[in-house]
Every structure is written in C-alpha cells, then in structure tokens.
Amino acid sequence: MAKRLPSAVDAVAALALGIIATLLVWSLHPSWLPAAYRGIGLTYLSHAALLAVAILWYPLIGRFPVGRVRRIFSNGWLWPLVTITLVVVVGTLLMFGMSGGRAHVGGMSDPLTMAAILLFQGLFVGISEEALFRGVVQTGLSATFPRTLALGSLRIGTGTILAAALFGAVHLLNPQPIAMSAAQALWAMLLGLIIGYGYERTHNLWGAMLAHNVSDLAFFAIVLALAR
User: Fold this and answer.
1) Is the dihedral angle over the CA atoms 119, 131, 133, 189 positive or is it negative?
2) For residue 81, what are the CA distances in angstroms to 3, 191, 196?
3) What digits encode the pLDDT tens for the residues 93-113?
4) What span, in angstroms and rounded, lies between the C-alpha atoms of 206 and 131?
5) Chain segment 141-194, per-residue pLDDT in tens
6) Residue 27 burial by CB count (10 A; 0-12/13-18/19+): exposed, middle or buried?
7) For the chain, what is the radius of gyration of the CA atoms?
8) Would you kindly state where each structural domain of the chain is located, as residue ranges?
9) Contact criterion met (CB below 8 Å) for 10 and 142
10) Is the separation of the CB atoms in 3 and 59 below 8 Å?
11) Helix axis angle, 111-119 relative to 205-227, nearest 10°?
C-alpha cells in the first residue's frame, strides 16, 4: 500500500491517463445507448474514467489528503463555498447579459435527460474531477513546487495555481466550438483557483467536491431558469 504523497510526476502521469481515457471514451459509438442519451451517457463514462484513475492512484502509488465529510465546514470550507456561489451567480448573469438576454438549453423537455444532468451536475462531476485534479494533480504539484505566491492579501501555492491552469486547459478538449471551449477554460481556471485554495488550506477533499457540485449546479439552475 502506498504511503507517500503524489509528486509532480504523479500529477502529470495521472492527468495524461485521465485525458487518454476520456478521449477513448468519446471515440466510442455505443449502439446500446439511444442516440438521444448518447451525449450524457458518454459524459458519465468519461468522468467515471477520471474517477477510476484517482481511485487507483490512492492505494497503489501516492496518497492524497481526503479529510472527513463531517468536518467540511469546521475545516474552513464555508467562505470558499460562499465565494464560489457568488462568483457563479454574478458571472452567469453577466454572461447572460452579454449574450443579449438569450439562454438556450437543448434536450430539457425529456425528464430522463433532465434527471441525468441534474444528478451529474449535483453529484458526479465534483466527485470525479476533484478526486483527480485536486486530490492527485494539485497535491502532486504542490509537493514538488511548495513555494507560495501573493495574490493581494492572499497567499496561494504554486502547485494550486498550476493545477487550476491545467484544470482550465483540459476544458479545451470538450467536443464543442473552440470559442465556447476557450471561455469555459478560463471560467474553469477561475473556479479551480477558488476550490484549489480551499483544498490547500483545509486538506478536505469532500469540501472541494461539494464546492464544485454547488458551482456547476448553480450555473445550470440559473441558465435553466433564464431559458424558460
């Protein structure tokens, strides 16, 4: 059983495996999935691959801080959660205004698709992405690059910043127009900095997962409300 912390080598290797697994999943054309549900189905499968990489890394190669669920708020996750919620609400409303007051959400008339998306945004996305990006990648980069940088009155680790940048960069691989992917990458990097800072301070991965799910679910709920 592995007892050491991950390193930058672990971070790069795990991220590479996660990207390769995700690309392999999206290259599939599963006939057993109805065409209407293929997109959300492949999204679940690709994130299951990310989670599998992190789960395998923990016992076999390098452990990372996880923390306890009941100590999310006592560990100091309240302010990161409040901050990320405000950022998402303000940012989403600004994007809505810049788009001319138009919001489009396709496929929401189907109850099964709606339920699958809500479950993904409210639970699975945070668990899978944070286990890999904060658990393995940020922990590994922070162990190799322990220096901290000043952002105003805050001090944040170099590894945290690098992990947030990588988190944003991988969103460029999303199967969508490049302009949309670029905007999503910048947005993901900002949220990655907030979540990463919280994880750096608390070493509680459950809080990072919760913050990620809250941000994605809040964004989806606002867009859905504006689209009606």
Assistant:
1) positive
2) 30, 11, 12
3) 887 776 665 655 555 667 888
4) 9
5) 999 999 999 877 889 999 999 999 999 999 988 777 888 888 889 999 999 999
6) exposed
7) 18
8) 8-227
9) no
10) no
11) 150
Q: What is the pTM of this model?
A: 0.90
- Do 132 and 51 touch, CB atoms closer than 8 A? yes
Tens-place pLDDT, residues 61-96: 778 889 998 888 887 898 889 999 999 988 888 877
Tell me how far apart the alpha carbons of residues 119 and 122 are, in angstroms, rounded to a whole number. Answer: 5
Tokens 């599939």 locate to 28
Q: Which two tokens stand for residue 203?
A: 């070493």
Q: Is 108 left (phi over 0), alpha (psi -120 to 50) or beta?
A: alpha
Amino acid occupying residue 75: N
Sign of CA dihedral 73, 202, 126, 228: positive
3-state per-residue secondary structure call for the chain: CCCCCCCHHHHHHHHHHHHHHHHHHHCCCCCCCCHHHHHHHHHHHHHHHHHHHHHHHHHHCCCCCCCCHHHCCCCCCHHHHHHHHHHHHHHHHHHHHHCCCCCCCCCCCCHHHHHHHHHHHHHHHHHHHHHHHHHHHHHHHHHHCCCEEEECCEEEEHHHHHHHHHHHHHHHHCCCCHHHHHHHHHHHHHHHHHHHHHHHHHCCHHHHHHHHHHHHHHHHHHHHHHHC
